[in-house]
Amino acid sequence: MSQKELLKVKNLKQYFPIKGGIFGRTVNNVKAVDDISFTVHEGETVSVVGESGCGKSTTGRAILRLDNPTDGTVEFDGVNLLDLNKKEMRKMRKDMQIIFQDPYASLNPRQTVRETLREAMAIQNVVPKEKRADRIAELLETVGLQPYHADRYPHEFSGGQRQRIGIARALSVDPKLIVCDEAVSALDVSIQAQVLNLLKKFQKEMNLTYLFISHDLGVVRHISDRVIVMYLGKIVEVGDKKSIFENPQHPYTKALLSAIPVPDPDHNKDRIFLQGDVPSPIDPPTGCRFHTRCPFATERCKEETPELRSAGYMAEGHQGACHYMELIESGEHQPTRETSNVRMLDEEPEKV
Amino acid sequence: MTTYIIRRLFQLIPVLFGVTLLVFLLMHLTPGNPAQLIAGETASQSTIERIEVSMGLNDPLPVQYVNFVTDVAQLDFGYSYRNNTPVFEEIKPRFWITMELAIYSTILSIFIGLIAGIVSAVRQYSVRDVTIMIIALFGMSMPNFWLGLMLMNWFSIQLGWFPPTGWGSASQIVLPVITLGTAGAAVIARMTRSSMLDVISQDYIRTARAKGVHEQIVIYRHALKNALIPVVTVVGLQFGTLLAGTVLTETVFSINGLGRLVIDSIMARDFPVVQACILIISVIFVVVNLIVDISYTLLNKRIDMD
Amino acid sequence: MANQNIEQNTDHSEVELQAMNVKKPSPWKDFYKRLKRNKAALIGFYTIVFLSIVSIVGPFLLSMDPSDVDVINKFSRPSAEHWFGTDHMGRDIFTRIVYGMKYTLGVGFGSVFLGAIMGVPLGIVAGYYGGRIDSFIMRLIDILLAFPGILLALAIVSILGGSLVNVTIAVAIYAIPGFARIVRGSTLAAKKLEYVDAIRALGSSDLRIIFKHILPNVSSPVIVNATLYIASAILTAAGLSFLGMGAQPPMPEWGAMLNDGRDYIFDAGYIAFFPGMAIVIVVLAFNIFGDGLRDALDPKLKN
Amino acid sequence: MSTNESILEVTDLRTSFFTEGGEVKAVDGVTFDVPAGKTLGIVGESGSGKSITAMSILQLISHPGKIKGGEIKFRGKNLLDLSEKEMRKIRGNQISMIFQEPMTSLNPTYTVGQQIRESYKIHQGLGKKEGSKRAIEMLKLVGIPSPEKRLDQYPFELSGGMRQRVMIAMALACKPDLLIADEPTTALDVTIQAQILELIKELQDELGMSVVMITHDLGVVAETCDYVAVMYCGKVVEYADVRTLFKNPRHPYTVGLLKSLPRSDRDQEELTPIKGTVPSPDEMPVGCRFAPRCPFATNLCHEKLPSLDDVGDGEQIRCWIYTDEWNGDPGVKVYEPERTTEG
Q1: A260 touches chain D (CB under 8 A)
Q2: Has domain A5-230 been given CATH number 3.40.50.300?
Q3: Amino acid C246: pLDDT
Q4: Could you give a GO molecular-function term held by this entry (chain A) (predicted)?
Q5: Nearest Cα to Cα of residue C260 among C268, C157, B253
Q6: Which residues of chain B have a CB within 8 Å of the CB of A23?
Q7: pTM for the whole thing?
Q8: If pLDDT is split at 50, 70 and 90, which confidence band does A22 have?
């Protein structure tokens, strides 16, 4: 990548305390994000994928300091955001925006589109007052709406249109980075495609950088340059879209990809069925967090936490966090568990 | 679960502290010197000073408060200004009368409220439902002292069915209990109904229907059990309201309970008695609410039990 | 060719949406529409408006004075001359009820207004900032809530002394916990809304978030709660006056009138009947209006 | 249509909701067959009426909804003619249903065992002991570990995936002939979804039942279904076997859906969305419901509603293009192969 590093996340941790016991003290933590590091370059789309509870949304919120991270650094444009005070951070927010999942909850129902956009511009004071009306009309056209929509309330729009308004609000302050938190997940397929195309178009035109958080691997494959796969608060694999989808290294990534239903009746694949459910992030498994479900798990996985690393045969920038990547690739390490049976009667009942 | 109960008990401490403090301040915020009140208006300055010393009124307030709490913990509420008898002795015979009145009224309101609420919810918007809900609205909107007066007027004076005053015999109990229980019944009926309607629209009710469960069983087994959980909380709150409501009901029916004692004592500026009554009623209310909270948690298995 | 067609037609600016052509009502119109659907609530609303007008204009239309003592005509039963009869001092009960209207409504509105002014900020601060401030405020609220029903108001009046103003203050304090709790709950819910996060992500200050984005969400439960609280405030205030701890004679306050009537319940039940009926009507009006408001403002019940 | 015998034939089903704003025709003349032992997928976007169709089959529509007409023939008899009592004997016994939200679809105040046993009690009159025995067998069948222990647990003690397994165990307790699965995996993670879909498939083979799979996910359809009915605005617009539908989709809506779909199995340069949005119920087009969004629509399409017609090979299409009355660009038919997804 020749582009400069726009966002650099180092050892980010986000723990949410659990109060309990007799005195309501913090008795434990939900380790939603537990020591992750990654870099996003200017102008690229990096997707964060994983199942519910893996910490992908928490990561996005922590980067924007919507929740204050427990530990680590988030460098944006060379500035560590976690060092900034409230006021400095407010200024910084001009450069980093977010688009949310729920098109119904992400707009204030009592504000017209014009009020919503004008407020956004006023907060960051980006456009001279007298020019804001023109800018609003322009923004609406950019996202595929009409200037006369400005005086309508959110409930007068469909889900897809609301999502466009949400995008217009994010764009109104001219940001460099946009975090898309499941931004198209709530939309129907035909509308989702409209919004995805729109996002792609803006990226080209405005040199935007996206951190795209999603559980939908089809969408991720379509929109990303690079992909980060998370499991239980940890990054298990990171790499180019192509390498991740065509040459996944981590057993979790492999299972995840194999689990997606493909809209082609002739598509034949060997599905890897994972045992049981994702464990609780309160007491995550020791060693590799995936070892409780991993088909290839050994004693070593239980004890030793694997670090993200590359291997000679892997593409540049492609890293996985598995002790056995190479051996699995070469076929020397075989599954230690059944992977084709969905009736997992041998599993111990999980603790709740 | 045990942790939960213990935690709730610990949370009781600041509340009880606040309640005792407020009740304690009640006496000290009130204009007028208590010593003067005891001694009477014509008492000499030296008498007043002597009383002040004996009551510890010259101690710093925190010291007085600690003494107050220590005494109260031993059920020593001081002496009545009016009769110079121990307050506890004044209260003891009246306490059970008030508890009886409150408990009977609560039982009545639960009984009527639940039945009315369920009957209403089962056929939403039917004539039956609308009638019950209108009656409940009236029940909620009536001042209970007025209801008491009217019941007394009709059933005691004009029809002569029940004695108009007093407490003790079965016939004396009827009117006060109806008077006090009506509003509670109305509140519980409304709560039960809305809770039932809420539950009936839940996914698991659809599941039960999809299983082929008879509609009757869907309502009385699948819906009712879930619907009653939030009603429990209301019942707890109602008990407190009824307990406090005895003040009015006892006044109307000339019942010699705690409620009437409060009023008489306020009128006579007999503050040790007022303090003790308010403290006792509040503490009972707090404890009842704690019990209700715990049973709510037991019933509502979805609540985290840590 | 067909392919081409599809591509051309998916130009984004062309998403000229059909849904736009139908004007949907604004939130307020929508609310009014839903309120109008609830007949009972409308009756409640109009009753409140009517009674408010009566409380202001009524005294000017009446020929009698509420404190005109007429010993000869005392205890006269309802008649054409004295619609609701006269009391033990021969005062016209109807006149007294009309004059008393403003006290009842005044205590109701006044105490709830005072209670809201104190309770709403407490609830917002507790809900928005959370943590220690929240725990502290909620403990205070718990203490107030430990005095059930009329008891807290009674305790306060016993300190302040019996008068209508003191009753208003007492009932206001009694209303604080309710407002604080409801507002705290809605603030917590509003804080989690995505649009609040969006406005935070834009760099908005806490004050703007609270006033522009959270307060409006809190307002409808506050309005509903206030309406229902007026009903119970009126009952509590009347109760205090009935006990002789509130409005003092000869003020034509309804609770105090009931207190008067109580002594003659054996011979002249109507003296107590009419003021009580007046209370029932006013309280009922607020209760059904509050119910209707709740239905109209509660998005859960929409459709 | 298909050579197989049908277990369920739905003809011209109409279900409406009567709201303040007037009648909303959620299901507006739906027709399809479910061949015995096979899986029919009903696919559509939100508001297409697919879930209402499912609820209508079991007559679980409650106020203000109403089934206005049509026929639902199950094993030859019209379910709409049955009394409520007769219908109850069918629900959960011959036709069962599982729902989207496993978290809320189980009664929180009863144990897993109580809820499964209830089915046996209603339909087979079994007592607690025999019911428990059968319930344990069912839990084993759906792959729940230590079923004896689970029997006494409450739903809140189970994970989402486990709850959906319990729902399946409950639905299949009486070995129904037909299982209606209404978005059974939408609320679940993709790895859990794979387990549940596979489980349903395996159980279908073991028990020889038919399945109606309601979903918005074309991937799920391709993997689990034998036949597919595509719904749009309360109507079936295309009915075909699964291979035909994905290899040679004909209705412009189906084509559009497939072209909108971002794929995880291969790279795509550009997605081709369908323009516009689903019309709201109060402004339903009079002609073809899809006409305002259709790239080929002519005046005919805007004015007159096409019927659902056989076009051979058991396939049915509701579109003017495939009729003799088509007066638009004749090329659209000729260029047909180019509109497939495999282009």
Answers
A1: yes
A2: yes
A3: 83
A4: ATP hydrolysis activity
A5: C268
A6: 7, 10
A7: 0.85
A8: low
> Per DSSP, what are the bridge partners of residue D30?
D13
Q: Do A101 and C24 touch (CB under 8 A)?
A: no
| Closest-CA residue to D169 (of D149, D188, D144) | D144
Q: Can you tell me the mean pLDDT for D22-28?
A: 89
pLDDT tens digit sequence for B279-293: 999 999 999 888 888
Cα four-point dihedral sign D110, D116, D117, D119: positive
The structure tokens listed for A317 are 């920038």
pLDDT digits (tens, 9 = 90+) for A228-244: 999 999 999 999 999 99
Q: Of B199, B247, B252, B250, nearest to B227 (Cα)?
A: B199
Q: What is this model's ipTM?
A: 0.83
From the list C16, C20, C204, the residue facing A123 with the nearest CB is C204
Cis preceding-peptide flag for D279 (omega within 30 of 0) = no
Domain boundaries, chain A: 5-230, 248-339
Which tens digit of pLDDT belongs to each residue from D120-178? 999 999 999 999 999 999 999 998 888 999 999 998 888 888 899 999 999 999 999 99
Instruction: Determine whether domain B94-281 maps to CATH 1.10.3720.10.
Output: yes
What is the 8-class DSSP label of residue D282? G
- Which chains have at least 3 CB atom pairs separated by less than 8 Å from chain C? A, B, D
- What residue ranges of chain B are covered by domains with CATH 1.10.3720.10? 94-281
DSSP H stretches of helix in C10-150: 27-37, 39-61, 93-129, 131-145
Measured over the CA atoms of residue B269, residue B272, residue B278 and residue B281, the dihedral's sign is negative
pLDDT of residue B188 exceeding 90: yes
CB B164 within 8 A of CB B157: yes
**Nearest beta carbon to residue D122 from set B211, B226, B301:** B211
Is B226 close to D123, i.e. CB distance below 8 A?
Answer: no
Any idea which residue has 């609003």 for tokens?
Answer: A136
Percent of the residues in chain A that have a pLDDT greater than 90, as a whole number: 64
Tens-digit pLDDT profile for residues B28-57: 777 667 777 777 777 778 888 887 777 777
Contacts of A192 (CB under 8 A, 6+ apart): A184, A219, D260, D262, D273
